[in-house]
Amino acid sequence: MLRTTLLKNIHLLTKSSIGTATATATATTTTTITLCKYSQARVLAIGGCQRQLSTQSKDTRPSEYELRVGYAIAILQDDLPNFFENGLENDTIYSNNIVLSDPHYTRLSIQGRTTYLHIAQALRWSLRMYFDAIQFEITRMRVLPDIPADSSPDDTNNRDDQSQEEDSGENQGWDPQNKDDMPDIHPLRDVLATKGVVRSLEVRWRLQGTHRPSFGLNQLLGMNVDIPVRHVEGVFVYAFDSEGFIGEHRIQRIVPPPSRRVLWVHSWGARLHAYLEALRRRPELNPGIGVGCRTTTPPP
Questions:
Q1: Domain that holds residue 230
Q2: CA 144, CA 139: separation in Å to the nearest integer?
Q3: Is residue 293 part of a domain?
Q4: Strand, helix or coil at 174?
Q5: Is 171 inside any structural domain?
Q6: CATH number of the domain bearing residue 85
Q7: What is the tally of structural domains in the chain?
Q8: Which residues on neighbouring strands pair with residue 39, listed in sequence order?
């Protein structure tokens, strides 16, 4: 139903709003998106925005770019918290040439939607081998009128201390399993409220997982060992291309940083997968009939 609603709204667009929004792209005001994982309560906020849009002129209606960005934000908020259970269920929000970049840890830069989805699946599979009862929570989302420059994780951490304090206050006592405590989200309204064209999305997240026991070795030896719980926080930056699809997924920060052994395994695994994918996509030469081909005579 969400996809059908978007397709109906896309046909009502006028591209004149793109030029109007570009004129104000120099502003640096950011908009914080309120979080909600209960998609039936919002339906991309189209219903909440229709009354507002009906009172405006046709020139101020959302463009196709804005609708796609709002749709991508809503899909990310549904897919990311459930990533370790269901994976990335909706891949239509990603560009065919999406780039997965990790400039600080593995220093990888891999291009292609198929490769991106396969790497995400491999990461999901490997982490589920290491950890049990994985919980992934989005703590904050910000739409930005430009693509932030690449900075070190320490710079990002120092610049966002105040935002983290606000996040801890906003999320204190919040139960991810209790849908009644979740406020409504209006991604399209937040996109329209941003001064300038939205070029990127910053996502802050928390991950919690329990280390899996060593295949029952502790039980066989009669050892009672407390299973440690791992807590990880990080920042993703999603950059949108000119059509409103996600063109880059940048791993901006992970705290605490992953170990060198984990980085080495994932780095070489990703490189090997990218190499095999490139070989698979290499076109095969077809010399045609009569050149090194054996022909058979049809039976009478």
A1: 2-166+179-281
A2: 17
A3: no
A4: coil
A5: no
A6: 3.10.450.50
A7: 1
A8: none
Which H or E run includes 159? Answer: helix 153-159
Fill in the DSSP letter of residue 221: T
pTM comes to 0.65
| Crossing angle between the packed helical segments 46-54 and 2-10, to the nearest 10 degrees | 30
Tens-level pLDDT at each residue, the chain (300 residues): 555 555 555 555 444 444 444 444 444 455 555 454 444 334 444 444 444 444 444 556 778 998 999 999 999 999 999 999 999 999 999 999 999 998 888 788 889 998 899 888 888 888 888 788 899 999 999 988 877 766 665 555 555 554 444 444 444 433 444 444 444 456 666 666 666 788 999 999 999 988 776 555 555 555 555 677 889 999 999 999 999 999 999 999 999 887 766 666 666 666 666 666 667 666 655 555 544 455 555 555
Say if residues 91 and 44 touch (Cβ distance below 8 Å): no
